[in-house]
Amino acid sequence: MTIFMLNAAGTVSFWTATKTLAEGWLENCTLFALTLVFALPLGLIITFGSMSKFKPLSYLTRTFVWIIRGTPLMLQLMVVFYVPGLLFETPFKNRMLAALIAFVINYAAYFSEIYRGGIESIPKGQYEACQVLGMTKSQTFFKVILMQVVKRVVPPMGNEIITLVKDTSLARIIAVAEILMTAEIYTAKGIIWPLFYTAVYFLAFCGILTLLFGFIEKKLDYYKG
Amino acid sequence: MAILEVRKLYKSFGSNNVLKGIDFDLEEGKVLSIIGSSGSGKTTLLRCITSLETADKGSITVNGKMVFDDENHHKLTKEEIRKNRLSVGLVFQDFHLFPQYTVLKNVTLACELQAKKDPQWKQNKKQILADIEENAKTILAKVGLSEKLNAYPCELSGGQKQRVSIARALAMNPSILFFDEPTSALDPELTGEILKVIRDLAAAKMTMVIVTHEMAFARDVSDHVIFMDGGVIVEEGDPEQVINNPQQERTKHFLSRFQEK
Description:
The complex is a heterodimer. Chain A has 8 helices and no strands. Chain A is mainly α. Chain B is built from 9 helices and 10 strands. By secondary structure, chain B is an alpha/beta fold. The interface between A and B is medium-sized, with 22 and 27 residues.
């Protein structure tokens, strides 16, 4: 982190603050991107677990989802970060890794429920039409069902992914040097405006995501159903 | 030899006995209509023959090949059941078209996936795909949809959708085509176009089994009519005879209710 954040007059220039906050923001972006990379596929695996016809697996998965969705992400962060140290005396060295693990588990659970909703909303008739046309199960899923699921989950996924952008700031609780934590360094010195200025980063990023999801929805709008 | 033989077919869902011993034969090139009130087991019968449901007892033979038989069914692999399905086509009441694909792709998709298993696929890919597309276009022309090849299902009327779904089933070249109330989801003024397509198919000697509530149509198009009630065949025979001159009380009752409508 930039050491000389304050000038001689004990104030900070707009440019310096922008650069310093950008360093923190990079942490948010890393956490955001890596969470998506791991949680998007993991969510699908959890979906298959909770939709499994093998009851014990489905109950187990649903209990897991209930626990993850039923407790605060902030608490999960603390559990992931502190519990290994308390139980096995092997504390996390890498705070970012701890944050990533908590985020991936948390978001995979939410994504899995969105996927499940999407898959279950596809009418049974689509499967039956594939069956009588002699398609295999995997052909049915990948050639017919999946595209329809994607279309249906884009709006709720957009919602969840935008929430993730802002949630990345919760990593501050285990001292990941993300943007809010960076801004608090100024706050501690009595300069409050950089803290409010962080909102611009979030707004800009979420604005871009909103446009992106709008674009994807439009791309998929060539058919209905 | 009959192309379809159904013997002593039983099916129940829990304590609800839907089929209680169905027996019938169908000769190649003939049209069979199945009539009867809702809940009489017509649709379940169709679903058992097309392997969407597994019957409890009895046997079904299509084209001399055993599709279902209570003693040996558990021996069939999923792949064998899937292959057996290819000999029958089913047109659903609610079409069930694939919304994300064009009309043409709806018709070609299953054929293309099937062709990938062809040993010739790798060498002849282009030719095979071209043949499939040509065949699909010919069939779509027959059902009057040459203008709509690149339309999506959401852009079609109900009647057009049902014609696509008929074309999709025909493209797989089934031995028998089954219709599950093909006009019930349509506005009355659109039923005519579907009935015309089925008439044309009958004229071309396509073997068909039609579950329908269109009594006049059933009488005109079919060679044989079955009236089902309570999971059994109550009366069957010549369409003129069953529909215009029923012998059984239950058939009379059903048909008289129909005329009141």
